Amino acid sequence: MSAPGWVWRAPPGWPQPPPGWAPPAGWRPSPEWPEPPADWVYWVPAPAEPPPPPIRIEEPSRHGLVLETWFVELAFLVPGVLAAVDVLVARVGGSGDITRFPTIVSGHPLANLIVGIISYFEVAAVVPLALLLLSRTGQGPAVMGLTRPRWVRDVWPGLGLAAAGYGAVLVIAIPFAPLLAHHKTLFNQIPTGHVPKYYVIYGIAIAAITAVTEETLVSGYLLTRLDQLGWDPKWALVLSLTLRTSYHVYYGLGFLLTIPLGYFLTRSFQKHRRLMRPIIGHFLYDAVLITISILA
Questions:
Q1: Whole-number Å distance between alpha carbons of 188 and 91
Q2: Rg from Cα positions in the chain
Q3: Phi-psi region of 145 (alpha: psi -120 to 50; beta: other; left: phi over 0)
Q4: CB of 36 within 8 A of CB of 23?
Q5: Rounded distance between C-alpha atoms, residue 199 and residue 109, angstroms
Q6: How far apart are CA 81 and CA 225, in angstroms?
Q7: Which of 286, 151, 272, 141 is nearest to 210 (CA)?
Q8: pLDDT tens for residues 216-246?
Q9: I need a surface site. Which of 160, 212, 220, 237 has the fewest CB within 10 A?
Q10: Could you report the per-residue pLDDT of 53-105, keeping only the tens digit for each?
Q11: DSSP codes of every residue in 248-277
């Protein structure tokens, strides 16, 4: 019997045939060979073939890292920049229905809060991808300083970064005071609208999601990749600040006031490689401002 999936098995003491051999018609064993056992089974199922070896993933080349960095940053920046341009055009055009907390569920502020927080997570959609790609080249969360916050190493420095951002904005805003008073359209502010006081929760959630997203993508991921590609730290800082500023154009000339904090946050990661520091600093800066705007 010769059928697919079956192989011929020689009895003990007989020569082993080559793989795939089957007795031809009329074949007889040599009389010099020993007698096979009475219950010997000549045909048995063929053994399963071993699985093919896994395809080895080679280390990314410089060209591969360049393309990866472009794709990740564009996936994050394009939606943000386009949304910022839409807001700026709407504000300049006189639209009065743009607020920090958009109405998704009309007439139900609590439901609107919950749905609004959930929908805002789309801003952070690229963050898991960036962290995965960093881990594949040896920069896991622990290496990036994305760990449980520590008071001395993360929280206090984060407080200092937020305070430095407030101080720098106050200093820079002084020369622009006349423009702020007479040309308010040049400095667009997105109002919070008339919302209940418990919308502080909404604001804090937005601040947290924004801080994690921006610092992971324009500080942690981008600066790490530029360092691997051999960029000069000064030019890497300039590029990070330029990209960070690009999606704040809805402030009009007010985007200039976002540069100091962006500088402090970016330099913090460059110097200490502790991503949690700028995340905490960014979160505190935004959370305080949003809280004040809601409660005031």
A1: 7
A2: 32
A3: left
A4: no
A5: 9
A6: 22
A7: 286
A8: 999 999 999 999 999 999 999 999 999 999 8
A9: 160
A10: 766 656 678 889 999 999 999 999 999 888 878 777 776 666 655 677 888 88
A11: TGGGBGGGGGGHHHHHHHHHHHHHH--THH
* H-type alpha helices, the chain: 62-92, 109-120, 127-136, 156-173, 177-182, 200-214, 222-228, 233-246, 259-272, 276-295
Tokens of 166: 């407030």
Spatial separation of the C-alpha atoms in residues 288 and 77, rounded to whole Å: 25
Number of alpha carbons in the 13 Å side-chain half-sphere of residue 38:
0
Would the pTM of this model clear 0.85, i.e. be above it? no
Give the total residue count for the chain: 296
- In sequence order, which residues have a C-beta less than 8 Å from that of residue 243 and are 6 or more positions away? 73, 77, 218, 222
Alpha carbon of residue 266 to chain centroid: 17
Q: Which tokens is 31 given?
A: 């009389």
What is the residue type of 222? Answer: L
3-state secondary structure of 43: strand
Q: Which residue has the tokens 């999606």?
A: 247
> Which residue is associated with the tokens 């913090």?
268
159 in Cβ contact with 281 (< 8 Å): yes
The beta strands (E) that lie in the chain are given as 6-8, 43-45
Residue recorded with tokens 């960070």: 244
Chain mean position to CA 96: 33
> From residue 26, how far is each of 29, 32, 138, 155, 156 by CA, in Å?
10, 18, 65, 88, 91
Q: In whole angstroms, give the CA distance from residue 171 to residue 39.
A: 98
